[in-house]
Amino acid sequence: MKNTGNPGSAAPKIIPRPDHNVSRNEISSAALKVLYRLHKAGYQSFLVGGGVRDAMLDLHPKDFDIATDATPEEVRSLFNNCRLIGRRFRLAHIRYGREIIEVATFRASANHEDDDEAHDREGRIVRDNVYGTIDEDVWRRDFTCNALYYNIADFSIWDYVGGFEDVQNKRLVLIGDAEQRLREDPVRMLRAVRFAGKLGFTIDDTVVKAMQGQTGLLANVPAARLFDEFLKLFQSGFAAPTFELLREHALFGELFPATEQELREDEKFLEFVRAALQNSDKRVADGKSVTPMFLLGVFMWLPVRKLAEIRRAEEKMSESQSLNLASYEIVAQQQRRISIPKRFTVPMREMLSLQPRFTTVRGKRAMNLLEHRRFRAAYDFMLLQSEVGLADPALAKFWTDVQKQSPDERAKSFELHSTPGGKRRPRRRRRRKSSGAS
What we know:
By secondary structure, this protein is an alpha+beta fold. Helix content is 47%, strand content 9%. The chain is built from 20 helices and 10 strands. It has helices spanning 29-40, 50-56, 72-78, 134-137, 163-168, 178-184, 187-199, 205-211, 223-234, 239-248, 252-255, 257-265, 267-285, 292-314, 319-334, 342-353, 363-368, 375-387, 393-402, 407-416, and strands at 13-15, 45-48, 65-68, 82-85, 91-96, 99-105, 148-151, 156-159, 171-172, 202-203. An 8-stranded mixed beta sheet has the order 1-8-7-2-3-6-5-4. A two-stranded parallel ribbon has the order 9-10. Strand 4 (82-85) and strand 5 (91-96) form a beta hairpin. Helix 7 (187-199) crosses helix 10 and helix 15 runs antiparallel to helix 16. The longest helix is centred in the last third of the chain and has 23 residues, at 292-314. The termini are far apart. 36% of the residues are buried.
């Protein structure tokens, strides 16, 4: 029987191995070693969360989290390659080469109804560090699809809240009272959208209704944590559908208010952003690297460009200088919502400030642009703009072709070419000063 209400004494529904498709072949060898060693030492040992969910969906899980009744200290005593982390709640990290298996002790319910100090004024949980049993642990998880426990003892799945059926029906349902759970942790709104975008799940009506009017609670979430969520939302290969869902549920504007305002007013800019997100997803699918610097630059491009025009009108400066100054100011404003590390903001500002230099295609300075450390990112940015009509396609073709040329051909292009498709501009000869002699 499905139960997504308050914690109780309800027994789990146990799905035996013949009735589900989760196989040990889908679990990493490192995670299996941890599961088996805990079990052989006499502790309960479960694979839990996204690993079980993704295995059910044949998505070849990559993250393997383990839950147990062993305390962190007891876990550490079993593994020499283990270290304990965390202050709010202690976790065990067990390393096998590059893979880290996270082991958490069962926690008691997060519903501290008689403990006002466990929540802030908006109801967000600020203290949650009480150990418990598996019957209690399930209630502190967010969505039913993430509350499935794979028991290594007999390979069954334990389901307390109907998550097994919800995974089969591709439905996202919050455990407990939806409004209360979102107040406890507003980031759950972003997680709902991320899971829906990644898994193709439908967000349950109870969750959608609870999100309405509560999006502003994200302002109470630490900016550093929101940057971590940004990475999960936009760097995992499902950025395009996630972006549409964020806007549909009025969440994107809470993360990027200046960008959202421009998206509502400029269709070309919206087309540019969508093209960038699709390009990012394709790179992930192809196994190529992606950097948050690029998408951050895409999101902030129009706000930066508009502010640059204002700054340039106020003071005499080059277009590149005005873009650099404007991007600094826009980033400073954005930091109030999402804390972006300098290792991303600095190259992003360089990428944006290089855009005007692509319009110059003659001379040594133009040729030197090819050697700039941000050339490739800036070129990709310009190329993407040309694809949606925000930059000259002829310029994009010139800079694409010139990269394929030999050094001699390249030098000739920069010396003789004035504008792509245009005529060669004659060189001006210096007029000699008259000596005054007849």
